Amino acid sequence: MSTQHFAVIGHPIGHTMSPFIHKRLFELAGADAYYTKTDVAPENLGEDFKNTLSKLDGFNVTIPHKQNIIKYLDAIDPKAEMYGSVNTVAIKDGKATGYTTDPDGFLKALDMAGIELSGRIMILGCGGVARTMAYEIAKKGLEFEFAVRLEDVGKAGLLCLEITKKIPDAKVSFGLMNQIIGTVDVLINATPVGMYPNVGEQPIHNCAVGRCASVFDAVYNPLETALVKRAKANGSKAAGGMSMLVWQAAVAQEIWHGGTFKNEDIEQLCADASAELLSK
Q1: Cα distance between residue 70 and residue 101, in whole Å
Q2: What is the CATH number of domain 4-100+243-279?
Q3: What is the rounded CA–CA span in Å between residue 187 and residue 180?
């Protein structure tokens, strides 16, 4: 069997961690494959798909192509169709099928951290990452709430309406991030607050963090944000977003060649990927 060729496309694409992560995953799985990155300008997506991308064995999709790539595909997985977003494409027998692995990456990251989705669940933010997490929580029939900035109240309201339209029995509400009261069983940060280089910032105050039993921060650079460090100092379960990034890549490899991965291998890869980020 010949060496398979995969890639990641986006614009800009310069600082992606995908080649580093996927190279290691291919090695762990013993797969004969290599992985490259390709900068694809939005106006060239259709032409590049026809001329080069469709000839690969598969590819990942990042901003700004996650929605626009769909029109060029032969088929789309039901989960990706529900989200209206594709981040992984598998090409088999000349047929391109789109998937989204972000939701599975989120759930696997929580599982690896020993964080159970139960009790009072709160998502900070209401952007694309928050939307992915919210749908997975709603599909489980769990009640949850968004906590947002004052300027995002309208956006949060629209997202709640969208979720309840697609999942009629969803139990979702929203409030202000600076007015969190009471205890929270699972706090999920889906904002970029605390991301490098602003590593000293937190999305909520220490007193609010102190009332959280467990914390998951989608930010992956640094490996441990100020929020994660504070939660751990309080004795809470806490994990950063590198595991979500690595697990969504691992799920893509499951789709491409049936690769399976152990938690301990993913944990080591998370640490190595973080070191690679620091070196850059």
Answers
A1: 15
A2: 3.40.50.10860
A3: 11
